[in-house]
Structures are given as structure tokens and as C-alpha cells.
Design brief:
Number of strands: 20
Bound molecules: 1-deoxynojirimycin
Radius of gyration: 24 Å
Number of helices: 13
Shape: globular
Length: about 525
């Protein structure tokens, strides 16, 4: 069962390069994040997910860790990190870090040691074939870069050698070791030591990068028995030594909860319920329920979501994102008025909300930006936070920033704080409302009406939520007591009639029924 604080957590994801630069070098830093904690709190968030802050050559935005026990000098000093955690905690904000469990940077000293031509204590920490001409099928293997005889397997980019957590099914005994081998178990213990190091420094848990990728040849994505066994072991360590810490997986499959994670992200993987709701470009037929043209289907979303939720609800949580550093932001595909309805829906579904920095002001995905630090298409979602219309949108005083800043008179914190009807103020009132009703953090969830592009209705306990994403009015023939109280609305509120409910265009309403 998830830890208590997770139940009512609302996360704000911060990509440290892009949030706030206090030393004028054009990159965001930890001091910058510390200086904006009150802002994070003012949104109604009570937790932060910090993308990798470790020492790194940044060949994959920091997901290529050179030193797992060191803060990247780009982001500040060790003291800046400790101060950030201390200040966050003093304001009631939890902090989870990114645990890059499956791979290191090619510049990681343990990897370089393992790449030496003679056997040493790191020989089996990474996965090496035994011959220089071995390029095994089904793996990405890199050769010819080091003097060790053999090629090494990478987990993602060619700069990210896979750590050796062993194999479940062994096809090539000359170089594949069991996940129960001494070498594989040593890697696992090393991972626990990384976790203990940051938990002892005050971290409240981890978002685990590519959590399903650790044990190789481990079968289907929705099963992965050996990888699951590994995480159950890690979870047992946490339960014993750090019972308040949480583990949240990038796995996007109910199996993650069975493997011991407290929560798992429902990501924009092909055809899953999240895409069927808001990301048509990743839905099988190219349509999602929130398409203004009404070409999506609420029933498809409802079926997929309920099936997934039913499998995990007794043991863990779904982490539900507005977007993240890997996905295109929802603006400008959707207007701010549509985003209000989308956030209202996402954050009243059963799950733990994750707001990606800047989504609360409707920052746009910037198309066709040249890739920086191997962000490629993701680069457009990583541009600096827009605080104001000052130089570099108030993000930095540098002449050149890490990525170009967008200056927009409406899409910035300062302007939206002043505008009662802004997306920012809506997000605040939505989260305040969510917090005021314990139904939203309960496990209760029931789909009441999900038919084509008609208004979607679902219940959280006694609360009935109704959303109409279309620009035409709708109606549903659900009969509720006429005296049901309207508690929250965006757009014009839905109206209860004797034989049903009229639902105005572009609206979201919550009734107590
Ligand atoms: C998932 C992370 O979210 C992404 O940014 C990264 O490139 C890969 N994992 C590799 O670590």
C-alpha cells in the first residue's frame, strides 16, 4: 500500500536546466528552484519531482549520469542541494529525485574501469560480450571504443551503457549472467547504495527511469518476472529502512504496482487510455476524446482506464501527467479554455497529479527547435520557464540561454497572476477544490456515462463530474436528485433536469449527488 503522504500528493515536475537561473550562466540551477518554492506551493502542489541533478556530460539531458553521488556543478554546489531540500521540507514540500537505474554515462568511472583490457573489480558491472566481433541480435551493442575485448550493451542512446542486473533467459552463457548471479546482485546492492545516499540527504523517494529495463531477456513488458523480483527486493529495503519513501515507476503498466512500486505513470504510450483521452496523435486512430471535432470516443478511454485502474487500485496509484520532459506540451494544440477542462478531468480522475513546469500557464510546445543535449523532438517541451516579459522571460540575465526563451505577454506567471480568469488561477482553484474533498483522494471511481463524444460523466464517491469538450451543447440522460449541489464549474455549469442533465459547450461541472 502506498505511503500516506502520496495519497494526497500533487507533484510539480521541474527540469532543472529550465526553471530559474540565479547565476546568469543561462542554465537553471538549484538556488533558482529554492527561490521559487513559494510559487510551487502557491499552485497547491506539495511535492516536486526533480529531473536528474547529478554530475553528467549531458548527452541525454542528464539521464547519462557520470557520478551518482555528486550534484552537477551546472546546477550548483552540494550545499545548494541540501539547502533546497531543507527549504522545501520547511514549506511542507516533498522532493523525489530521478533514479536512473538502468544505465550510466559512458564517462562514468565504473564503466571506464570495466572497459579496461584486463579483468578488474568492475569487469561484470556492465554487460559486455566476450568477442570483439560479437554484435548480438536484439541488443544495441557498441564496439571499437575501448580496449576491452568485447562489445557493451547500451540501454538507450549509445552513450548510456547498461548496468548488469543479469538476464532471466540466458541464450549466450559465455557473456549473459543470471539475474541471481553474484555480479548481478552486486549491481543491485550498488543501486541500493545510491538510493540510501540521497534518502539520507533528505530525498523523499524516486521517480525511476525505465524501471522495466533492468533485467534483460525478461519476457513481456506486462510481466517481467525477474525485474519485478528485483524491485520487490528494493521495496523491501525501503519499507524496512525508509518507510516514508516512495517509488514511482516509468513503466506504464499495471505490472509495476505488482513489482512493488507505490505509483506508476500512465504515459503517452501508443494507444493507452491517456492518449485516448488527450493525445490523439498517439492514439490508434489518431483521435482522442478531447478533440474539439468530436472524433474521439469516451467509451474507449473509459474501458482502458477502468481495466487498468481495477488492477492496481488496491495496492498503488496511477501517476497522471499534464505532460513531461519527453512529451509534447498540450498547448498550442489546445487553447487555454480547453486546457482548463483537460486539467480538471485529469486531476479529478483517481490518481496522483503531476504538473509539468509551465503547463499551469499553458506554455507552448515549440516546434522545430534544433535539438540540444539530445533532446531531439523533446527539446520543444524543455524551453525556459516564462516568469514575466522581462529579458529571457525573467528566467535568466544571460545573453544566451540554454534554450531560446519565449516572451509572450499572456503566457507568463506575472501576467496570469493578475488575471482572474487565467489558466494559472484556474489551476490554483482546481487544486484547492480537489484538496477540499477527500473523495478525490479516495479509491472510489465509477464511470457513469461514456459514449462517443457525448459528455463524459464519472463519480468519485458522491461527487459527479461531467465534462463536455465540444463547442456544442450536450445532454446525458442520467437522473440525479434535483437538489444535488453544484460544487465546482468551469465554463457554464451543467443543469440538472427531471429526466437528465444539460451540459453546456466547453464545460466541466462537479455536483454532490
Ligand atoms: C526516460 C527519460 O524520461 C528520458 O528523458 C531519457 O532520455 C530516457 N529515459 C533514458 O534515460
Amino acid at each position: 500500500m502506498g505511503n500516506n503522504w502520496l495519497k494526497s500528493a500533487v507533484f510539480y515536475e521541474i527540469y532543472p536546466n529550465s526553471f530559474m537561473d540565479t547565476n546568469g550562466d543561462g542554465y537553471g540551477d538549484l538556488k533558482g528552484i529554492t527561490s521559487k518554492l513559494d510559487y510551487v506551493k502557491s499552485l497547491g502542489a506539495n511535492a516536486i519531482w526533480l529531473n536528474p541533478h547529478y554530475d553528467s556530460p549531458f548527452m541525454d539531458g542528464g539521464y547519462d549520469v557520470r557520478d551518482f553521488f555528486k550534484v552537477s556543478p551546472r546546477f550548483g554546489t552540494e550545499e545548494d542541494f541540501d539547502e533546497f531540500i531543507r527549504m522545501a521540507h520547511s514549506k511542507g514540500i516533498k522532493v523525489i529525485l530521478d533514479l536512473v537505474a538502468g544505465h550510466t554515462s559512458e564517462q562514468n568511472p565504473d564503466f571506464l574501469r570495466s572497459a579496461e583490457p584486463t579483468e578488474n573489480e568492475m569487469y561484470d558491472r556492465f554487460i559486455w560480450t566476450r568477442g570483439e566481433w560479437d554484435f548480438p541480435q536484439g541488443f544495441k551493442a557498441i564496439g571499437g571504443r575501448h580496449n576491452r575485448k568485447g562489445n557493451y550493451i547500451v540501454n538507450f542512446y549509445s552513450t548510456q551503457p547498461s548496468l548488469n542486473y543479469g538476464f532471466n533467459k540466458i541464450d549466450e552463457p559465455s557473456w549473459q549472467m543470471s539475474y541471481k548471479s553474484e555480479a548481478a546482485l552486486k549491481t543491485r546492492e550498488w543501486l541500493k547504495s545510491v538510493m540510501r545516499f540521497w534518502l539520507d540527504r533528505g530525498a523523499d523517494g524516486f521517480r525511476v527511469d525505465m524501471a522495466d529495463s533492468l533485467v534483460k531477456n525478461d519476457g513481456d513488458w506486462g510481466e517481467k518476472p525477474a525485474t519485478s523480483e528485483l524491485w520487490q527486493d528494493v521495496r523491501a529495503m525501503l519499507d524496512k529502512e525508509y518507510p516514508d519513501a516512495v517509488l514511482i515507476s516509468e513503466w506504464s503498466n499495471p505490472q509495476a504496482i505488482r513489482a512493488g512500486f507505490h505509483a506508476d505513470f500512465m504515459l503517452d504510450h501508443w494507444g493507452n487510455p491517456y492518449n485516448l483521452l488527450v493525445r490523439g496523435e498517439e492514439a490508434p486512430d489518431g483521435h482522442s476524446y478531447f478533440d474539439i471535432k468530436g472524433s474521439g470516443d469516451a467509451a474507449k478511454f473509459a474501458k482502458g482506464f477502468t481495466e487498468w485502474y481495477d488492477q492496481i487500485k488496491d495496492d498503488g496509484y496511477l501517476a497522471i501527467i499534464s505532460c513531461n520532459h519527453d512529451t509534447p506540451r498540450l498547448a498550442p494544440i489546445y487553447s487555454h479554455d480547453q486546457l482548463k477542462l483537460i486539467y480538471a478531468t485529469l486531476f479529478t480522475l483517481p490518481g496522483v497529479p503531476f504538473i509539468y513546469y509551465g503547463d499551469e500557464i499553458g506554455m507552448k510546445y515549440i516546434k522545430d527547435l534544433p535539438s540540444v543535449e539530445c533532446g531531439f523532438a523533446r527539446t520543444g517541451s524543455r524551453t525556459p520557464m516564462q516568469w514575466s516579459t522581462d529579458k529571457n522571460a525573467g528566467f535568466s540575465t544571460a545573453e544566451k540561454t540554454f534554450l531560446p526563451t519565449e516572451i509572450d505577454k499572456n503566457i507568463n506567471v506575472e501576467a496570469q497572476q493578475k488575471d482572474k480568469k487565467s489558466l494559472l488561477n484556474f489551476v490554483k482553484s482546481l487544486l484547492a477544490f480537489r484538496k477540499s474533498r477527500e473523495e478525490f483522494t479516495s479509491r472510489d471511481f465509477e464511470i457513469v456515462h461514456a459514449v462517443g463524444s457525448e459528455p463524459l460523466c464519472y463519480k468519485r464517491g458522491n461527487l459527479l463530474c461531467i465534462v463536455n469538450p465540444l463547442s456544442s451543447k450536450g445532454s446525458v440522460n442520467i437522473v440525479v436528485p434535483p437538489k444535488s449541489k453544484e460544487l465546482f464549474s468551469e465554463g457554464k455549469a451543467a443543469k440538472i433536469k427531471k429526466d437528465g442533465i444539460d451540459v453546456p459547450p466547453l464545460s466541466f461541472t462537479v455536483f454532490e449527488v
